[in-house]
TrEMBL record:
Function text: Involved in the maturation of specific proteins in the endoplasmic reticulum.
One GO term (biological process): protein maturation
Residue ranges constituting the Lipase maturation factor 1/2 C-terminal domain according to the UniProt record: 432-571
GO cellular component: endoplasmic reticulum membrane
InterPro entries, sorted: LMF (IPR009613), LMF1/2_C (IPR057433), LMF1/2_N (IPR057434)
Coarse class of the protein's main subcellular location: endoplasmic reticulum
Stretches that traverse the bilayer: 12-30, 77-95, 102-121, 133-150, 162-184, 217-241, 253-279, 299-322, 343-361, 381-399
Family: Belongs to the lipase maturation factor family.
Protein name as catalogued: Lipase maturation factor
Keywords linked to the UniProt accession: Endoplasmic reticulum, Glycoprotein, Membrane, Transmembrane, Transmembrane helix
C-alpha cells in the first residue's frame, strides 16, 4: 500500500486555500448582502426564530450567530467575526502544515456552515453548488486530518486510505452528476452546447469571447471532450491501477484549467482541483526510488492504461460517429434518447456496484494492514477498532450518497427505501451529503438575457444605466477574471433574468436599497461608473435586454456585445412606492435599526478592519492575502 501522507497534507492545505478564498469573498459582501441595510438582512431571518427555545433555534437554524448577544455583538458584526475568524484559521492552515489538524477543520466547517445558514438565495442551488460542495468536502477533512500536530499524532496510513477514498467518491458523484445533467440537456445532446455556452454562461471571462468564435467543429469536439470527461472518465477513479488514475487526474486537471480560462466559476474549479489530489499518492511526488512496487507491476499498469484509453477513444469514435471531412472533424450522436436513458440507468447501477466493491476492497486492505503492521496485541486491537470505526463512517456516507445519485433516473430512484431517504435527509441538512443535480441549464440559444437597472430623477427620464462589476452591462466593456472571488449578486442576476421579478424578493429589496442610496449595497455595483454619485435617483426601473457577442469580423472594434431590448422587466419604483414597500414589508425585508448594543471595543476593531479592506478591489484583496501567505511559506522554508 503506497503511502499518501504527503498527498493528504497537500490536500488539507489546498482545502485551507479554498476556505480562505471563500471566507474572504463572504466577508467582503456581508454589509451589502446580509447587513442591517443589506439586500437580505441576516438579522431579519434570525428574528423569525427569536422567540423559540434555544434547542428549537439550533434545530431550525443551526448557526453560531445565536451566540452574538452573549459576545456583545449584533448580527452584522457577528457575521464579520465569523468570516474573519474563518479567514484566519484557513490562513494559518495554509502557511503551516502543523495547524492542519482536526480542531482547525472542525472550526472552519462550523464557521462556514454558520454563514451558509443565513446565505438564503445567494447560496441556493443556482449558485452552482460551490458552497454545498465545499461544506461536504470540508466535513470529509474531519475524517482525514490528524487529531493533533506532530508525527506521533498522525492518523495511521490504513485509516487515511479509507477516509481519503471518500474524497474520491465525492469527486466522482459531483462530476458524474454534472455530466449526466448536461447530457440530458438539448444543446448538449446535439453537440452544439459550446456554440452558445461561452455567450450564455453565468459570468463570462475575457477569453470567453475568443472561445465563442472558435470553428464550430472545434466547439463540437470540446463538447464531446466535456461529456466524456464528466461521465465516463470518473469511473476510472476506482481502477486499482495507479497509472490509470494518474492519467484520469491529468485529463480532469486540463478540463479545470480550460474552464478557469474561459469562465468565472469562483472558487469551484480550485476546489475540484484540490479534490483531484485524492487520485494521487506519495510516489508521484517522491519518485520511484522510495517505493518499491516492482518493475513488472509498473509495466503492466502502463500497458493496461494504454489499452483502457485506446478502448475509450475507439468508443468515442463509434458513439459520436467521428469522421474526417477535409480539414475538420464531423460528429453526431448515434444513439437515441431512449437508449441514452438506458445507458444512464445501467451506469448508475454500475457506479453503485463499482463504488461498493472499491470501498470494500479498500476497507479490507486497511484492516489487514492495521493488524499486520501494528506491533503488540493491544495495539493491534486498538488499530482494528479504529479502522472499523472509520470504515463504518465511510460506509454510512457511501450508502447515504446513493440517494442523490439514484435521483438521476426514475428507475434507480424508485429503489431507494424510505429509511435510507430519512438518513440522507438528516445528513443533507448538515450538508454532509448533497444533491448536485442542476435545476436549470445555462447554455441557451440566441444570446443571454440581462436585467439592466436604470435610474432617473423624473418619471419621463432621462434614464441612466447602473453597471455591475462582473456581469455584462456596458457593451464596450470586457468582463474581468473574477475567480476565485465569488460575486454572488452578479451571479444571481443571471438567474433572475430567466424568471419573473415578483418571484425574486431580493431583487426588489436591491432596488429599494439603491433608491435609499445605501452605500453598503452600492459597493456591490460599479461605483466608478455610477450615474448617480451624489445622491440616489428618485426612480429605478428594470429593462430586459438580449445580449450577443459581436461577430469575429468586428474584433478590432471597441464593442464586445450587441444588445436588443426585449421589454420591461419591472416598472419604475420610487422608495415610497406603496407597491414596493408593501411587497417588502410582507416579507420582512424593510431595513430596521439594530436593537442590540455592540461592545465598543468590538465595534472599533471590526470597523477598522472593514475600512481597510473596503479600499481594495475584491480580487486584489484575495490575491494579496494569498501572496502574503505564500511569502510566509517561502520565508519559513528558507529559514529551516
Amino acid at each position: 500500500m503506497i503511502p499518501i501522507r504527503y498527498t493528504r497534507n497537500l490536500f488539507l492545505r489546498g482545502m485551507c486555500v479554498v476556505y480562505l478564498f471563500s471566507f474572504l469573498s463572504f466577508y467582503i459582501q456581508i454589509p451589502g448582502l446580509y447587513g442591517d441595510n443589506g439586500i437580505l438582512p441576516a438579522r431579519s431571518l434570525l428574528e423569525n426564530n427569536k422567540y423559540k427555545s434555544w434547542s428549537a433555534k439550533v434545530h431550525y437554524q443551526p448557526t453560531l450567530l445565536w451566540l452574538a448577544p452573549y459576545l456583545g455583538l449584533d448580527t452584522q458584526y457577528a457575521l464579520d467575526v465569523l468570516a474573519l475568524l474563518g479567514s484566519f484559521l484557513a490562513f494559518s492552515g495554509f502557511v503551516s502544515q502543523k495547524f492542519c489538524t482536526l480542531p482547525l477543520f472542525a472550526g472552519l466547517w462550523s464557521l462556514y456552515f454558520s454563514l451558509y445558514q443565513v446565505g438564503q438565495v445567494f447560496v441556493a442551488a443556482e449558485s452552482f453548488f460551490r458552497d454545498n460542495l465545499l461544506l461536504e468536502a470540508g466535513f470529509l477533512c474531519l475524517l482525514i486530518a490528524p487529531l493533533l500536530p506532530g508525527r506521533r499524532n498522525n492518523t495511521p496510513a490504513y485509516v487515511n486510505h479509507v477516509s481519503f477514498w471518500l474524497v474520491r467518491w465525492l469527486l466522482f458523484r459531483f462530476l458524474f452528476t454534472t455530466g449526466v445533467a448536461k447530457v440530458y440537456n438539448g444543446n448538449w445532446w446535439d453537440l452544439n452546447a459550446f456554440a452558445y455556452h461561452f455567450e450564455s454562461m453565468e459570468l463570462p471571462s475575457p477569453l470567453s469571447w475568443y472561445a465563442h468564435h472558435l470553428p464550430i467543429w472545434v466547439l463540437r469536439m470540446i463538447t464531446i471532450w466535456h461529456i466524456v470527461t464528466l461521465t465516463v472518465l470518473p469511473f476510472l477513479f476506482f481502477v486499482p491501477i495507479r497509472s490509470v488514475r494518474i492519467s484520469s487526474y491529468s485529463v480532469q486537471l486540463l478540463l479545470q484549467i480550460f474552464t478557469v480560462l474561459t469562465g468565472n466559476y469562483n472558487f469551484l474549479n480550485l476546489l475540484i482541483v484540490t479534490l483531484l489530489l485524492s487520485l494521487l499518492d506519495d510516489k508521484l511526488f517522491f519518485g520511484k526510488s522510495q517505493f518499491n512496487t516492482g518493475k513488472w507491476t509498473a509495466i503492466f499498469g502502463q500497458i493496461v492504461n494504454l489499452l483502457v484509453h485506446a478502448a475509450l477513444i475507439y468508443a468515442v469514435v463509434v458513439v459520436f460517429n467521428l469522421r474526417f471531412s477535409g480539414s475538420q472533424v464531423d460528429a453526431k450522436i448515434d444513439i437515441s434518447k431512449d437508449q441514452l436513458s438506458q445507458v444512464v440507468k445501467q451506469s448508475l447501477f454500475v457506479a453503485a456496484y463499482v463504488g461498493l466493491a472499491s470501498l470494500t476492497l479498500k476497507i479490507a486492505r486497511s484492516v489487514s494492514y492495521a493488524v499486520m503492521d501494528t506491533p503488540g496485541v493491544f495495539s493491534k486491537f486498538i488499530a482494528l477498532i479504529r479502522t472499523i470505526f472509520y470504515a463504518a463512517l465511510a460506509m454510512l456516507i457511501f450508502i447515504s450518497s446513493s440517494v442523490p445519485l439514484s435521483s438521476l433516473h426514475t428507475a434507480t430512484n424508485s429503489t431507494i427505501s424510505p429509511a435510507l431517504r430519512t438518513v440522507h435527509n438528516r445528513l443533507g441538512k448538515l450538508q454532509i451529503v448533497n444533491n448536485y443535480v442542476a435545476p436549470t441549464a445555462s447554455s441557451t440559444k440566441g444570446g443571454r438575457l440581462e436585467i439592466i437597472l436604470e435610474g432617473a430623477d423624473n418619471i419621463d427620464g432621462p434614464w441612466l444605466e447602473y453597471y455591475f462589476l462582473y456581469k455584462p452591462g456596458n457593451v464596450n466593456h470586457s468582463l474581468p477574471f473574477a475567480g476565485p472571488y465569488s460575486p454572488r449578486l452578479d451571479w444571481q442576476m443571471h438567474w433572475a433574468a430567466q424568471s419573473n421579478y415578483k418571484d425574486q424578493p431580493w431583487l426588489l429589496s436591491l432596488v429599494h436599497r439603491m433608491l435609499q442610496g445605501r452605500p453598503e449595497v452600492r459597493s456591490l455595483l460599479d461605483r466608478a461608473h455610477s450615474p448617480f454619485q451624489g445622491k440616489p435617483p428618485k426612480y429605478i426601473r428594470g429593462n430586459l435586454y438580449n445580449y450577443k457577442y459581436t461577430p469575429w469580423s468586428e474584433r478590432w472594434q471597441s464593442a464586445w456585445w450587441k444588445r436588443e431590448k426585449v421589454g420591461e422587466y419591472f416598472p419604475a419604483f420610487s422608495k415610497d412606492s406603496a407597491a414596493l414597500v408593501d411587497y417588502l414589508k410582507a416579507r420582512n425585508l424593510l431595513p430596521t435599526p439594530a436593537k442590540d448594543a455592540v461592545n465598543p471595543i468590538w465595534k472599533q476593531v471590526l470597523d477598522s478592519v472593514r475600512y481597510v479592506t473596503s479600499h481594495l478591489e475584491a480580487t486584489l484583496l484575495l490575491w494579496s492575502v494569498f501572496t502574503a501567505s505564500c511569502a510566509i511559506i517561502t520565508t519559513t522554508a528558507k529559514s529551516r
